[in-house]
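Late entry, written up from scratch paper. The run itself happened at the end of the previous shift, but nothing got recorded in the book at the time, so transcribing now.
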Amino acid sequence: GMTDARAAEIRAVLKGEREALARLSRSILDSRAALRDVIRDAEAGEADVRAASFRLARAQADMVVVRHQIFVRIKPILTAEQLGAMTQVQGRVDALLEGAIESFEQGLAE
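Output as recorded:
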């Protein structure tokens, strides 16, 4: 388990990044909506689609940078067991996503 002191340290790190996370989450959401609109616009050209796609990619990259910065600050707080548990959870998520992609691909092949 996690001690109260470690949990408080992690909460403090997350609280310090709350505004950035909220801003970037909003940017990703807005960029996805804009891309969706461009995809559905019969008048849009390839350049429009690429521009909207690049805006989404930039927003996602910005979020990944902040997530990395948070992890760098949180990692020393976690025990080896907690880090191992994180790795196991991510492995399960990756396997679940891989299965969903395979199902989708099989559905397309039928």
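The chain has four helices and no strands.
(Scratch paper discarded after transcription.)
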